[in-house]
Design goal:
It contains 24 helices and eight strands. The protein is an alpha+beta fold and 526 residues long. The longest helix has 20 residues. 24% of the residues are buried. The N terminus is likely disordered.
Length: 526
């Protein structure tokens, strides 16, 4: 097989037609700015009469007359004469040319979309005028343009009488990933994860789909449903929950726990032996709200109930032994660095806390970091539009902080403050979920508690209060309060390394959790 090196088309060169079929060479102007041979010029399909039968052949240019160096015309003609008697295989040249300029010139759907209308011009112009970067407002225009394009394609199938509905409006994960990849090709400074990151499992951690394209796509689906253009969601029928079968002996132990809280050795024994009946679908117990659950078992009102909560957590949490304080101390320097670089801290008092962090004791640092944590953890959740206006606005960092940890200056005011807090929540139909309480100042917590409604557990430190509060949420299958949901979700994912597909975390929270886990895991493994 003849070997050919890469070549360029010389306009003045004579072309040889080995099949004796008259061919035309495009005018040099048709080649545009590039002088490379276009595969369309080299091979086109046509029919020839071969032995009375139609057969498809390729019109091929004999490239042996071209040379990458500057040789004389006589030497080229000599080469031509020598090669005319040989059977030349043009496959190599044909395949290389087929993968050449023409395939690279095919525009993606996004490139075509950006050439139509004013939005594409705004986006391209903004990219140039901002030094090769897209401002966030322009990213929004780009995302809206893509989703609207796909929505228009879906809506084009409906009649104009307004009677029909879309059964579904779908932009697949592959489509979104392709759009994200095309954005990066057109605007190299962008990142694909900004626009779309598909569902994946990374080191055993499930990461849900996220990104600007994903968020706006889901928002527009809700708009179409609200306007009656898109059919409502189709929920799969939930399989009936299986109720755990409780044998006679277990029933006796449960009945005993319902009526006794002493002696404690019997409480602990019966509590452990009834674990499955209390947690695995027993209709009388597992489906109760947290408040009802705590009212059901009098033993949970005792200070020693901390051991019962720890027992349930240990049986539910199947991972390696875990120490909250150790993981926190590993992560603490990283959180301090993040706070020192945080630009959203505006108040003078909070700035002063950040300034003092390096000079504080370890326990004082714990109090300050927990106090300032709402600045680092994005809120990411808002009430639905049809709720009261007061609830729909985004909560400030100080408001989220007040629902995450309750600070009480004096020990004498603990009971009265907690009672007032519980009554305020009760008036709005809510209860006081597991909440850490610090007595003293931010830099000097003298006592710490965990409160659940009117029950109060004393613990040794504010960190232990965070630890115990989360274990109550986890063991009792209790949802986090809406007002500080993202803070507890950060604790769950970053500190306890517990992840669920249903976790509603923003891309920013995913990024912060990823940083935290890298820091903790790198130090824990050494």
């Amino acid at each position: 097989m003849a070997e050919f090196s890469f070549f360029q088309l010389i306009p003045e060169a004579a072309l040889m037609d080995p099949l004796s079929i008259k061919s035309e060479i495009k005018d040099e102007r048709d080649l545009g700015e590039s002088d490379k041979i276009d595969s369309v010029d080299v091979a086109s399909t046509f029919d020839v009469n071969e032995c009375g039968r139609k057969a498809k052949q390729s019109r091929t240019i004999d490239v042996t007359i071209f040379s990458p160096d500057t040789t004389s015309s006589s030497s080229r003609m000599t080469s031509n004469n020598e090669n005319s008697n040989k059977s030349v295989d043009y496959t190599d040249c044909y395949m290389r040319l087929q993968n050449g300029k023409n395939s690279n010139n095919e525009q993606s759907e996004l490139e075509v979309l950006l050439t139509k209308g004013g939005d594409g011009k705004i986006i391209k112009r903004s990219y140039k005028t901002n030094g090769g970067f897209l401002p966030d407002t322009v990213r929004t225009i780009l995302v809206h343009l893509i989703v609207k394009h796909e929505m228009d394609k879906a809506l084009s199938t409906l009649s104009d009488d307004g009677e029909e509905k879309l059964e579904e409006f779908t932009i697949t994960s592959n489509q979104m990933q392709n759009y994200a990849n095309d954005i990066v090709k057109i605007f190299p400074s962008e990142k694909t994860d900004t626009y779309f990151g598909g569902f994946k499992t990374l080191n055993g951690v499930r990461i849900l789909a996220h990104g600007k394209l994903w968020d706006h796509y889901n928002y527009m689906k809700s708009v179409l449903r609200d306007q009656g253009v898109l059919e409502g969601r189709k929920f799969k029928k939930k399989k009936p929950e299986r109720t755990a079968v409780v044998d006679g002996e277990t029933r006796k132990k449960l009945d005993w726990l319902l009526n006794n809280s002493l002696p404690w050795s019997d409480v602990l024994k019966n509590w452990k032996e009834t674990f499955e009946a209390r947690t695995e679908g027993h209709s009388e117990l597992a489906m109760k709200q947290l408040f009802e659950y705590y009212q059901t078992f009098p033993c949970l009102r005792e200070q020693q109930a901390v051991d019962l909560i720890q027992s349930d957590f240990d049986q539910l949490y199947k991972k390696k032994p875990f120490n909250f304080t150790e993981s926190w101390n590993i992560l603490k320097p990283h959180l301090i660095s993040k706070l020192q670089a945080c630009k959203t801290i505006k108040t003078l008092d909070d700035k002063a806390y950040v300034h003092l962090l390096p000079s504080l004791t370890s326990e004082q640092q714990d109090g300050v970091i927990l106090f300032l944590l709402p600045y680092l953890v994005p809120c990411g959740r808002r009430k639905r539009r049809n709720d009261d206006q007061e609830e729909t606005r985004k909560m400030t960092s100080s408001e989220r902080r007040d629902t995450f940890i309750i600070y009480i200056s004096s020990a004498a005011d603990v009971d009265s403050t907690l009672k007032k807090k519980s009554e305020d929540l009760k008036r709005t139909g809510r209860t006081l979920h597991p909440t850490p309480v610090g007595v003293g100042s931010v830099m000097g917590v003298k006592a710490a508690y965990v409160v659940v409604n009117d029950i109060k557990y004393e613990v040794s430190s504010l960190l232990n209060a965070i630890d115990l509060s989360y274990k109550i949420y986890y063991a009792a299958h209790c949802d986090f309060p809406e007002s500080c949901h993202s803070l507890w979700l950060f604790m769950q994912k970053a500190m306890f390394d517990i992840h669920y597909p249903t976790d509603r975390a923003t891309p920013s929270l995913h990024a912060l959790v990823g940083e935290a886990r890298r820091v903790i895991d790198s130090k824990s493994s050494t």
